[in-house]
Amino acid sequence: MFVRTEHHVAYATMFKAVRNYASVFFSTDLVLSFGSLDRSPCIASAFREVLPNIRLLNCYPHLARNRGASDKVGLLTKKAFYDDDVAVNIRYLSVARSEEQFKALPRLFVDYWRSEGEVGYANWFEDTYLGSTWMFWYYQSAIPCVCNSLCYAVTNALESHHSTIKKTCVASLRSSTSVVLNDGIPSILFHEASQLFQQILYHFSEGPLCSESVENAQRLLDNKKNYYKLKVPVTRVLFGVLFNATKFLKSSKNVNRSDLDRRRAQRYLNSLEGKLPEDVTVRNAERYCLSIHQVKLLHVEPVTDFIPSARISIE
After folding, report:
1. The pTM is what?
2. Element (H, E) at 178
């Protein structure tokens, strides 16, 4: 679907069309839990009008560019503070492991910026990216959803994240509406129609593991200090495993190597609930809160409303 202008009415019309044709073709009342956008008020308001209970997922790549823009860096009294601290701290926030952890870590970082005299930048970042509407830009919050960035909904007529379109389908990226409708869109549709169709479609996670993934998993398991098993207290049933992140793997050549013991595991699990260690600082926050990955074993949880992925084929 295509939107030619950045305007509430245009986006609301598109979202209503999606819901309408979901009903027409699939007899489904489409209610989305998540929507993706690039901190655009007109998209946000359109989402809220059509899907009032939707959670808005903000675009981290846009944030990453905006945080280092010259006018924003100009808010800093010490220019080196951006590369040495701000950029590092924001990158940590982008990989927060839970919503509770994400809400706790900014207080640590933003308070530190203010203590270093960077009140202007701290206030701007807090007001812009930590409010309730725009806070869901960390990766863990980006649950798969309908992303309007995939609908070519942009100001410039044929601007798109899809490099193939820019390289093969159109002669100009900035065109009038008539050129977009009569030349650009037909060219894109023809290009897509000419591509080979995959005979069977299924979720990527249902496919076989690649050999590289198996090798990496084996490397983790070779050293027992790289993982920690989580078990139900009384029954001792295994329900999860914590693994060292790559940066902290146990290796004689790794200066950041860390044993994944019970103390470190509990400190990490507490941080997932928003309970940061008393001795946490901006210097050790990564090691304390962001140095571990968790794998949950779902065999101990009841599976309800499970629907196998659809198999689509062309006869």
Report:
1. 0.75
2. helix 177-179
